[in-house]
Amino acid sequence: MTELVFSGQIASPGLALGRLHLRKKTQARQRSAGDAAAEEAALLAAIDQAARQLESLAEQSDSAGAEILEFQGALLDDDDLIDPIVRALRGGEAAHDAWKRTLDVEIADYAKGADEIFEARAADLRDLRDRVLGILSGEEETEIALPEGAILATENLSPSGFLSLDAKRCLGLVLREGSAHGHVAMLARARGLPLLIGLGADYEQLIDESQVVLDAEAGKLVLDPSETSWARARARFEQRGSEAEELRAYLEKPAVTSEGEAVAVMINVDSPALLSDIDPAHCDGIGLTRTEFLFHEGSLPDEERQYGIYATILHWAAGRTVTIRTLDAGGDKPIPGLTPEGESNPFLGLRGLRLSLAYPEVFKVQLRALARAAALGPLKVMAPMVTLPSEFDRFVALFDAALTELEGEGVPAARPQLGMMIEVPAAALTTAAFDADFFSIGSTDLTQYVTASARDCPAVGDLLDPGNPAVLELIERVVNAGLRKGVEVSLCGDMAGEPDLLPLLLAAGLRQVSVSPARLAVTKSAVAAYPGGAITGLGGAS
Amino acid sequence: MTDSTAFVPAASGAAVVVDPTGLHARPAVKLTKLAKGFEATIRLRAGGEGNWVNAKSPNAVMKMKARSGEVLNFEAAGSDAEQAVLALVALVERNFDD
Fold first, then answer.
1. Contact predicate B30/B81, CB 8 Å
2. What 3-state class would DSSP assign to A87?
3. What pLDDT does residue A141 have?
4. Would the CB atoms of A74 and B26 count as touching at under 8 Å?
5. Number of Cβ pairs closer than 8 Å across A and B?
6. What is the Cα A56 distance to its own chain's centre?
7. What CA dihedral angle connects A45, A50, A55 and A60, to 10 degrees?
8. Contacts of B32 in chain A (CB under 8 A)
9. Which residues of A are catalytic?
10. d(CA A197, CA A220)
11. Which site among A63, A70, A104, A127 would you substitute to test the B interface, given the most B Cβ atoms closer than 10 Å to its Cβ?
C-alpha cells in the first residue's frame, strides 16, 4: 500500500505516531413524543442526567475544562432558559423539538457578531443541546472508547467530548471540520495534544486502524506511511522528546551567541487566539502577524473590530514591538469574493499588496484600524508581495491618507513604522531603491520564487529548499543593502526556526528573526550554539 | 422580570468590569450563583442604556456581552435587596476573585 499524505490546519502543534481510530457516524435516533406530562417528565429527567454527567466530567478536568463544563451546567439550572421550554411542552410540543428550537435561537444569538469569546459560548450551547438531545433519544453516554496509542479521527468534536477522551490512550486528534479558535483547539494546546483540523473531503479517504503519522508540525497526516517515512517520523518524535527537556531552559533567557552578541528572536502570529498560551517575556516581540485570520468569519471585520483585535495584540506584547502585515490574500490563501478566480497561477497573480491596491476601499478599513492601533504602542506595519518601489509608495500614500482622515475626525491615531516584505526576487535585487522604514525577508515565498517551485506542489518539494545558495545569496544581498541604507532587516519564515539553517542566516549578518512560537526555544538554543564571526551591528537593539 | 414598570428597586449599586476579557463565563456563573442566594429580585445591565436582565440567569448575564471597562448597574427589590446589591458589587470589584 502506498502512503497517502493529507493536509490540514494545525490547531495544536505536535507529532504523534499511532493507529487511526475512525469514529463512526452515529445515526440520530428517532424519538416519538408522549403526552404533555410524559414530555415534561422526560425533559426534566434528561436535564437532570445531563447535569450529573457534566459534574462527573468536571471532576476529572483541568481548570480550563472545568470552566466550560461549569457554564454548561449553570445553563441547565437557568429558570429563564428552561421555564419557557416547559411551558411549550404543556402546550403540546415534543420535548426534543422544544429543546432544540430554544437552544438553536440562543446559539444563533451567541454566534452573531463574530466575537471569538461568544463563538466559544455558542459552541458550549451546541454541546449542551446535543447532550440533552442524545439523552432524550435514549443514546448511551457518548464516550469514545479508544484502544492504546490511538489517533482519533472524527468529523467534529464537542468540548465535553474532548474532555471525556482518555488522555492516556489518545495521542492525537484529526478533525474533518473544527476551528483553530474553538474550545477543543484551546484545550488540545493546553494539554499538548497534536490536533489537525479542516481535513475536508480528504476525511472520506481515512481508513480505520491504519498506521498514521500525525505531523501537526507540518500540517500533514500520513496514512500508511512507508517504512522510511515511519522511521524518519519516529526519529523526529524521539528527538522532540529529548529536546523538550533541554530547550525549556532556553525559553526564558534572551538569545545570545557564544560570543555574547544579542539576536532578537520574535514570533510569528497566525491567530491572536493563540497568544494567551504564550508568555510575552519569552520573545522579543512579534515579527509577523498574519491578518488573514480576520477573514475566518467570511468577510473582513469592520474598523472597530479590527482595531479591537490589534489593540489586544499590543496589550499582550506589553511594550514589545508588534509587527502587523497587511492582508496577504491570494496565492494559496484565496478569499471568496475578493481574490480572483481561475488564475492559471495564483502564486504569480493578484495577491498580497497587489490585491490590496486593487481594492483601496477594503484596504482603507485595515489601514485606519492600524493607524488607530499605532497610537497605543510600538507598532510596525508592513506590506506583503511588493515588487516595485512605486507600489510601496502607493501603500504609504494610502496610509497617510487614512491618517489624515482620522486626524480630521479627531480620532487618536499615529504613524507607525511602515515597512515591506522582501519575497519577490526583483525586490531582493533592488532593495536599496525602496523607501521603507524596515525590511522583512519572507524566506518561504522568496524560496519558492527563486527556485521556481510552488509551495503547494509536493512533487517539487525537494527543490523548494531555503538552503539553496541562490536564496542565501539574495538574503545576504538584502542584509547588506539594509546595512548600507541604515534600515533594519529581519527575517520571518520557517527557515529561521531550523537549527541547521539559522547559522547561515547569522553568518549573512541577520540579527533579527521571527519564528513560529513552537520554534522559539529551538531557535534560541541554535543562536547560543552559534560560534560567531559575521558582519555585526545590524538590527537587534532598534 | 424585564418589565421595568413593575420594578421598584429598594437598593442599587454599580461596579466596573476590570477583567481585560470582559465578563466571561466563569464570572457570569459566579455572579448568578451569588445572586441566587438572595430572596430579592435582582436585575442588572451593562452601561446606562442596555436592557435590564435577571441577575439569576447565567444565560442572560452572559448574553449582555459586558466588555472590559463597562459599568455594571445593579438594582434589587425584596427583603434582602440591600445585602444582595452590596455583595454583588463587591464581587465585581474583586474581579470575581480571579
1. no
2. helix
3. 56
4. no
5. 49
6. 32
7. 140
8. 74, 78
9. 183, 492
10. 10
11. A70
pLDDT tens track, chain B, 98 positions: 444 457 888 899 999 888 777 788 889 999 999 999 999 999 999 988 889 999 999 999 998 888 877 889 999 999 999 999 999 999 998 888 87
Q: Are A25 and A155 in contact, with CB atoms under 8 Å apart?
A: yes
| Mutation target among B31, B41, B62, B98 for the A interface, most CBs of A within 10 A | B62
CA distances from A290 to A268, A298, A384, A433, A449 (A): 8, 16, 10, 26, 20
Place of cell 447565567: B58
Fill in the DSSP letter of residue A508: T
CA-CA distance, A526 to A405, in Å (whole number)? 46
| Secondary structure of residue B62 in the 3-state scheme | helix
Which of B29, B54, B56 is opposite residue A70, by nearest beta carbon? B29
Predicted confidence at residue A434, as pLDDT, reads 98
Closest to A376 measured CA to CA, from A440, A330, A309: A309
* CA dihedral sign of residues A174, A179, A182, A188: positive
Three-state DSSP class for residue A289: strand
For A307-378, where are the E strands, in sequence order?
Answer: 322-325
Q: How many residues does chain B have?
A: 98
* Reported ipTM: 0.91
Which residues share a beta bridge with A333?
A: A330
What is d(CA A256, CA A265) in angstroms, rounded to the nearest whole number?
10
User: Residue A237 and residue A230: Cα distance in Å, rounded?
Assistant: 10
Check: CB of residue A496 under 8 Å from CB of residue A514. yes
Continuous H helices in A326-388: 353-358, 360-373
Report the distance separating Cα A383 and Cα A356, nearest Å: 9
C-alpha cell at B12: 442599587
Q: How far apart are CA A385 and CA A423, in angstroms?
A: 6
Would the pLDDT of A188 be above 90? Answer: no
Q: How do residues A504-523 score in pLDDT, each as one tens digit?
A: 999 999 999 999 887 898 89
If you write DSSP's letter for every residue of B34-55 in order, what string do you get?
A: HHHTSSSEEEEEETTTS--EET
Looking at chain A, how many residues does it have? 542
Grid cell in block for residue A458: 509536493
DSSP for residue A256: B
Q: Name the amino acid, one letter, at A315.
A: H
Helix (H, G, I), strand (E, B) or coil at A393: helix
As beta bridge partners, residue A214 has: A16, A221
State whether residue B21 sits within 8 Å of chain A by CB. yes
Q: In what order do the strands lie in the sheet with B53-54?
A: B11-16, B71-77, B41-46, B53-54
Say whether pTM exceeds 0.80.
Answer: no
The grid coordinates listed for A26 are 452515529
Q: Which residues make Cβ contacts (< 8 Å) with residue A363, sequence separation at least 6?
A: A326, A327, A356, A357, A398
3-state DSSP helix/strand/coil % of chain A, to nearest 5: 50, 15, 35
Q: Which amino acid is at A21?
A: H
First to last CA, chain A: 55
Q: Position B38: which residue type?
A: F
